[in-house]
Amino acid sequence: SDSNVVNIVEVGPRDGLQNEKRIVPPDVKVELINRLGRAGMKIIESGSFVSPKWVPQHGYDDLQPTKPPSTQMAGTPEVLTRMEKLPGVHYPVLVPNLKGLENLLELLSNTVYNTLTDPSSSKPTTIPPTDEIAIFTSTTDAFSLANTNCTVSESLDRLAIVTQKAREKGLRVRGYVSVVITCPYSGKVDNKQVRDVSKKLLEMGCYEVSLGDTTGMGTPASVGDMLDVVMGAVPVEKLAGHFHDTFGMGVANALQALDAGVRTLDSSIGGLGGCPYSPGASGNVATEDILYAIQGSKYKTNGEVDLDEMVRIGWWISEKLGRENASRAGKAIKAR
Ligand code: HMG
Ligand code: MG
After folding, report:
1. In sequence order, what are the residues at sequence separation of 6 or more whose Cβ sits closer than 8 angstroms to the Cβ of residue 289?
2. Per-residue pLDDT of the chain (336 residues; tens, 9 = 90+)
3. CB 3.0–4.6 Å: which of 127, 138, 270, 318 could bond 85 by disulfide?
């Protein structure tokens, strides 16, 4: 039945790329997003409007070594204007503060929108670069200070204003809570804190809250315990699971979340990425691994997804980044 439809939020072009050392040019990001959309992804996180001073500066751009140092997310405006906007697909971007929202709104008002022609009509339709932002906070002040230079309560105050303004402009807003299991700076996290922060994000107007196991230290048991507490105050329909795969628990934790009733999972093509403020953390659970894991189960994806094409995309982007493909299913499927 419909209650077993799983929504996958493909976060590779943002969470994945933001922590990759080799900076790829907008062309590659545009092709990545276009291919993910054509392969069947319905929500593709496409970049961020964060301060370039805060997402680590990499030494130089391997692919364009004559250009000055930049950061992986700096090209987001160009990517948003050039990528293909498929009907029915959302392309959220991360926004940390009002400044980021203003930069996005300026882009939205200045862009000559992509014109796609609906094959069933003779009228061209214009589609704005994006209709969704994602805001983010965390459960601990230590992580919040490292990631956004303010405490959790200060960040909630800021984000309430950002959310209100974004919604006034017709954007939908997704919320993230980072470090829902363990914080790299303050250790084991209190599940009640996850619950309370999630509730506040929903109250300020987020349509969904994504629970981030940033360090990837969660296990099915600790994820299950955390979800029990959060679901005491927040409807499970409003929750998503965001699992980093540092300890190889990504798929197991994702299945645990599905068992608990969660129906939205964040994942990253090729298992790309990490988190700049979570030392040693590896990428998100690979989208290919999630797709493989739910094959033949009662769960199905929201729309057809072409797993073989996803595997090819995972290999292609890993090669572009000069990194190992972190999807186990991607490796195995290629080898057979
Ligand atoms: P701040 O230094 O306190 O900001 O940083 P500020 O307001 O004092 O401004 C300082 C300078 O930055 C100023 O420039 C601003 O104009 C500029 P200056 O006057 O010095 O030339 N600035 C900006 N520029 C561009 N875009 C902006 C922006 N804001 C200020 N939006 C701030 C505070 C929040 C901006 C900063 O800490 C920041 O950008 N943090 C984001 C870090 C980040 O991107 N982290 C990764 C994403 S979160 C994540 O990955 C977790 C997640 O995946 C879930 C999980 O796994 O847990 C979502
Ligand atoms: Mg993340």
Report:
1. 250, 251, 267, 271, 327, 328, 329, 330
2. 479 999 999 999 999 998 887 889 999 999 999 999 999 999 999 999 988 777 654 433 333 333 444 578 888 999 999 999 998 999 999 999 999 999 999 999 876 555 555 556 666 566 788 999 999 999 999 999 999 999 999 999 999 999 999 999 999 999 999 999 999 999 999 999 999 999 999 999 999 999 999 999 999 999 999 999 999 999 999 999 999 999 999 999 999 999 999 999 999 999 998 655 666 668 999 999 999 999 999 999 999 999 999 999 999 999 999 889 999 999 999 988
3. 127
In contact, 44 and 34? CB cutoff 8 Å: no
49 CB less than 6 Å from ligand 1?
A: yes
ipTM > 0.95 (yes/no): yes
Q: Are 116 and 127 in contact (CB under 8 A)?
A: yes
Q: How far is the CA of 18 from the centre of ligand 2 (A)?
A: 10
| Contact between residue 95 and residue 104 where contact means Cβ atoms under 8 Å apart | yes
* Helices of type H across the chain: 17-18, 26-38, 76-82, 98-110, 141-148, 152-168, 191-203, 220-231, 250-259, 287-294, 307-321, 328-335
Could you tell me the distance, in angstroms and rounded to a whole number, from the CA of residue 17 to the centre of ligand 2?
11
Place of tokens 């203003």: 102
Please state at what angle helix 307-321 crosses helix 26-38, rounded to 10 degrees: 170
The CB of 15 under 6 Å from ligand 1? The reply is yes
